[in-house]
Design a protein that fits this description.
The complex is a heterodimer.
Chain A (H helix, E strand, L loop, with lengths): L2 H6 L1 H6 L4 H13 L1 H18 L10 H17 L8 H22 L5 H10 L24 H12 L10 E3 L2 E4 L2 E4 L13 E3 L2
Parallel strand pairs in A: 1-4
Antiparallel strand pairs in A: 2-3
Helix pairs in contact in A: 3-4
Chain B lengths: L1 H4 L3 H23 L2 H17 L10 H27 L1 H8 L16 H17 L2 H12 L4 H8 L3 H28 L1
Helix pairs in contact in B: 2-3, 2-4, 3-4, 4-5, 4-8, 6-9, 7-9, 8-9
Chain lengths: 202, 187
């Protein structure tokens, strides 16, 4: 080994973290190399100067001051909230909006999803105005709801919700109920209606 | 520490009394600032109390404590360097510079307690002039006497890196201090 390798061992030699073989080699090197010996002595004096530094002491009442400061700071952490699940209010709002929208659409008679159509049809008897258009004479199967007071009430409600500037008249297909679902009963002859005609099926 | 984690104030005060000297000494030597060291040491203990529930039972308390101390000291060094850079590059030079003329004064005669204090002041300044990443390892090892493995845990670096940093820091310090000690020895 040379002087460079010897100097690489100085720190470990000081810390006593060196193998027995390295120690013996280094000590024999010191006896033959005054330069390395001086370098090591300089390092040793430096590290002794570090360990000779006086210990810094704290002033009286330090622990009490620390405790007071810690108690002042601590409540903030104790009150640290449990992590908020931000998706909860967003999801709740979305669900609420969806419910409101569904209610409005249902109330207004706008079409919903396929599962809702039957129930809407069953819950709301279909409104039919007396037919000014000339069509085939109504068969008994073509049930129409013509209750004047119901029409009046329904008209009162719908007037406030819809624009009736383009009213259309409706002819209803008869509806039967099987296993909880509404089905159209086609008994009407497909005679073309004269005038505007819209057919709503459920 | 288990009692401290449950909020036992007496246990916390005991803990502070047991470690206050070492923590303050570490911070003081790393910053070379006696006045600021007590404030920073206080902050170390306050953080221990505030984050007491984060302490992992079974791990060594002193390692956790000195990890906090080392991090705060590191932040403080960086804050100071930034501030000095902002106000004056000369001020940084003053911290890093060699103040040997004080020791080389031939009128001072034999070693007195004042000379000893001056030498200690020079040693303190020399430590402060070692780059931060080497300095913390050096103080933890050569002033506080922690084993390499524990220093590695505190600084979150491998043991080999700790050794090389300390080796490097010792070399830097030797080059700064040996001329001063030679001058003093020849007086």
């Amino acid at each position: 080994m040379n002087c460079g390798q010897a100097r690489n061992l100085f720190s470990a030699y000081w810390d006593d973290e060196i193998t027995q073989g390295e120690r013996e080699w280094l000590e024999s090197h010191f006896s033959s190399c005054p330069s390395c010996r001086r370098e090591y002595d300089a390092l040793a004096r430096t590290l002794e100067a570090l360990s000779d530094l006086p210990r810094v002491e704290v002033s009286n009442g330090f622990a009490d001051r620390v405790l007071a400061a810690a108690k002042r700071r601590s409540p903030a952490v104790d009150r640290m909230p449990v992590p908020v699940r931000r998706w909860v209010p967003i999801t709740a709002t979305a669900v609420l909006l969806a419910i409101v929208a569904a209610m409005v659409m249902q109330w207004s008679g706008m079409p919903l999803g396929p599962r809702h159509q039957g129930s809407v049809a069953l819950e709301q008897p279909v409104l039919t105005q007396p037919q000014p258009v000339q069509t085939e004479p109504a068969t008994p199967a073509m049930a129409t709801v013509t209750s004047p007071d119901w029409v009046a009430r329904a008209a009162g409600v719908t007037d406030s919700l819809f624009d009736h500037s383009e009213d259309v008249e409706f002819i209803l297909d008869p509806v039967t109920l099987r296993k909880g679902r509404a089905h159209t009963v086609v008994r009407v002859q497909p005679e073309p209606a004269r005038g505007e005609q819209a057919v709503i099926t459920f | 520490m288990g009692r401290v984690a449950e909020g036992d104030e007496r246990a916390f005060t005991e803990l502070v009394r047991r470690f206050q000297g070492r923590v303050t000494n570490l911070v003081s030597r790393v910053l070379n600032d006696r006045e600021a060291s007590e404030d920073l040491a206080q902050e170390v203990f306050v953080r221990v109390f505030v984050h007491r529930r984060n302490y992992r039972r079974g791990s060594k308390f002193s390692t956790w404590l000195f990890t906090i101390a080392a991090n705060l000291a590191k932040n403080e060094i960086r804050r100071r360097v930034r501030r000095r850079n902002w106000f004056s590059l000369d001020a940084l030079q003053e911290v890093l510079g060699d103040s040997s003329p004080h020791l080389a004064d031939p009128t001072e005669g034999k070693e007195t307690s004042m000379q000893r204090q001056q030498l200690q002041g020079m040693v303190g300044k020399a430590i402060a002039s070692v780059p931060e990443k080497y300095r913390l390892a050096l103080v933890l090892r050569d002033i506080e006497g922690f084993p390499y493995e524990e220093i590695g845990e505190m600084l979150n670096i491998p043991g080999g890196t700790v050794r090389s940093r300390i080796n490097r820091a010792r070399g830097i310090l030797k080059r700064k201090l040996v001329p001063l000690m030679r001058r003093e020895g020849t007086q």
